[in-house]
Amino acid sequence: MSDAQQIVTRIAPSPTGYMHIGTARTALFNWLYARARGGRFVLRVEDTDRARSTPEATQAILDGLDWLGLDYDGEAISQFERADRHREVAEQMLAQGHAYKCFSTQEEIAAFREAARAEGRSTLFLSPWRDTPESEHPDAPFAIRLKAPREGTTVIRDRVQGDVTIQNATLDDMILLRSDGTPTYMHAVVVDDHDMGITHVIRGDDHLNNAARQVQIFNAMGWPEPVWAHIPLIHGDDGKKLSKRHGATGVMEYAEMGIPASAMRNYLARLGWSHGDDELFTDEQALEWFDLDGIGKSPSRLDMKKLANVTGWHIARTEDADLVAQINHFLKLTGQSELSQAQQDGLTRAMYCLKDRAKSLPDLLDKGRFVLENRPFDYDEKARAALDPVSRGILKELTAQLQNASWSRDTLEGVLNAAAQSHGLKFGKLAGPLRAALSGRTVSPSVYDMMLVIGRDETLARLDEAASLA
């Protein structure tokens, strides 16, 4: 790649009904690499499997990218719709002698492999039609196969894995065009990457063996190879291949858990890539720091505790209004009622006392129930127990004492501490009934924060309601 050439990366998922977390991480790496260098990031949907490639499955990919905030350049490209171009290149390779017609049937190939297994021979199928002259070709359906080199080696110069050498004798002449005229995935990928001007192929290392075959097509066509970077896969916390038993594997499952997209980007970036010892960073820092040299060779492990810590860090640093908007999006995504304007305003006022220890958007909603719910409260069991007759009597006294108090933290602390002392109590003994009265629960933000957020009139109304419980 010349120094002046614009960097172009891509994400090329197959629509399978959801976006896998591994695909999301690959998209993020490609997005970071291109965006930080003034390049382009493009989307190609590899939808040649028509049984699985539904509009809903494609939409799931678009939804995943949208939620993650990974914008792509231009329109999404359908691999299926480019089949004529794939056929054109296969026929060009045939005309140039880089490919040949193979008349071997599926039954013949299967019989060869079965016999080879039985005899302990290699099952690598070497087509007998490779060097057969055109005059001896039958009038029958044929596939077009790549005429791959039989001797020597193919070297993948990989920015993550280093130089990977494959013996050409271990590779067969792969099919470019099936006998029904449909292009194979392996061939289509190369044509698409070339036509889209992809300069860097950053993808999972499960594609490393594919690269050896794809290099041969690039070479046969005289096309420049992209820079290869094959990333180790994501494993579960037990070191085994990631599956449902380890937790969520689809990226939108994390959205439905209430993980903010900024936290997910931070967490995914650290799955397999590092910048010194930095664990927590902003998008701006990720764009500044990300490079292929920081990608490790070992599989990364999904760690939900670490994700919770990353999430807490991002929530604490996000603007209050932005968090409220994210909560509304989360509620809509999970089929719940969105917040009214009054609830949004109240939650925004309360956010300063909700953010510090929250590990998810539902955490914020749970901690903020005191400002989201209206009287009369549905007191939980522990709250009702805290509101015993003695406590209700103290609350009734407090209601009168707070009527004319100035509404500041210092004044409120003075009034509440004095009330506790007058009954021979430490403030902690009064805090439980106060929490119950103000929120309907015994676990909540501090009573002072709740009183300041909801204001004098609402505080007095809640204390009066609690004091009047039968």
From TrEMBL:
GO biological process: glutamyl-tRNA aminoacylation
EC number, UniProt record: 6.1.1.17
Database matches in Pfam families: Anticodon_2, tRNA-synt_1c
Localization per record: Cytoplasm
GO cellular component: cytosol
CDD domains xref list: GluRS_core
Known catalytic reactions: tRNA(Glu) + L-glutamate + ATP = L-glutamyl-tRNA(Glu) + AMP + diphosphate
Keywords from the UniProt entry: Aminoacyl-tRNA synthetase, ATP-binding, Cytoplasm, Ligase, Nucleotide-binding, Protein biosynthesis
Major place of residence: cytoplasm
Motif 'HIGH' region, residue range(s) on this chain: 13-23
Residues binding ATP: K244
Sequence ranges assigned to domain Aminoacyl-tRNA synthetase class I anticodon-binding in this UniProt record: 325-466
Span of the annotated motif 'KMSKS' region: 241-245
Leading EC class: ligase
Entries under InterPro entries matching the protein: aa-tRNA-synth_I_cd-bd, aa-tRNA-synth_I_CS, Glu-tRNA-ligase_bac/mito, Glu/Gln-tRNA-synth_Ib_cat-dom, GluQ/Sye, GluRS_core
Transmembrane feature ranges: none
PROSITE patterns per UniProt: AA_TRNA_LIGASE_I (PS00178)
All residue ranges annotated as the Glutamyl/glutaminyl-tRNA synthetase class Ib catalytic domain in the record: 6-308
GO molecular-function terms, A-Z: ATP binding; glutamate-tRNA ligase activity; zinc ion binding
HAMAP family, sorted: Glu_tRNA_synth_type1
Quaternary context: Monomer.
UniProt record similarity statement: Belongs to the class-I aminoacyl-tRNA synthetase family. Glutamate--tRNA ligase type 1 subfamily.
Function: Catalyzes the attachment of glutamate to tRNA(Glu) in a two-step reaction: glutamate is first activated by ATP to form Glu-AMP and then transferred to the acceptor end of tRNA(Glu).
This protein's name: Glutamate--tRNA ligase
Gene that encodes the chain: gltX
